Amino acid sequence: MFIKTDELKVNWKGTVKGVQPRIRLMRSYDQRSHTYLGYVLIIDGVLEGEHREFIVAIGKAAQVRHGFQSEDQVEGMSEPVPDERMEIANVYKTSKLQILERYPGKAADPPPWHGAVPWLEIYRRRGHRRLAARTYDLKCISCIWACRMPVEMIIDHWNPSQKRYRFETFCYGPKSCSFYSSGPTRKVPGRRRMTWEEEDWIDEESTAHRSLDE
């Protein structure tokens, strides 16, 4: 039976509190790979008639077309995500996006960084450092350089069905940021109860091509 897509969607409206990249991380012991999916809008508004903070996933083309920034007033329609382990967003497959009112003010001096959001290719090129989850929640949730990623971990590469899930936070911003806090190193479980630790040198190597203020 054919079901109209719009019948699965819910209406939402609100104020953009942050625009960040939508990136999924796959881990397999000491290996990792990223999937760059688009962007997320962190919204303070109304979702299905309930006032709350929620996260909307949008595609790259939608961000390029509309240029969403913090404090814009927006609305749209989206579907609830089918697997909350694989998304930081509450809703995705977004359509009928509109900017109801563009924020007329000027972004405050950083940090955090607001304004125009970089292309996904720029995030990939810059590389990231781990970011303490508490710092992300308290200081970085509106910053264009911060990112909270859903993480899928393959525990045994001989048996890929053995998986675990979690969320990790990262910073793509200037290494001189006064808000930055790395938090503890991250440990990845493996087969036969082995554990691999992602040490500081990996972050240093990932961002070695950037200067302190870049």
Folded structure, characterized:
- This protein is mainly β.
- The protein has one domain.
- Helix content is 14%, strand content 43%.
- It is built from 4 helices and 10 strands, in the order βββαββαβαββββα.
- Strands 1, 2, 3, 4, 5, 6, 7 and 8 form an 8-stranded mixed beta sheet that branches. It has a two-stranded antiparallel sheet with strand order 9-10.
- A hairpin with a 5-residue loop joins strand 9 (186-189) and strand 10 (195-198).
- It is globular, with a radius of gyration of 18 Å.
- The model has no long low-confidence stretch (mean pLDDT 95).
Properties at a glance:
two-stranded antiparallel ribbon, 8-stranded mixed beta sheet, mainly beta, single chain, 214 residues
Summarize the structure.
By secondary structure, the chain is mainly beta. It has four helices and ten strands. A hairpin with a 5-residue loop joins strand 9 and strand 10.
User: What's the structural domain tally?
Assistant: 1
String of helices and strands:
EEEHEEHEHEEEEH
What is the SS-derived class?
Answer: mainly beta
Count of strand segments: 10
Write the layout of secondary structure elements.
Layout lengths: L9 E19 L2 E17 L2 E9 L1 H7 L6 E8 L10 E11 L18 H7 L2 E2 L2 H8 L5 E9 L8 E9 L14 E4 L5 E4 L1 H7 L8
Parallel strand pairs: 1-7
Antiparallel strand pairs: 1-2, 1-4, 2-3, 4-5, 6-8, 7-8, 9-10
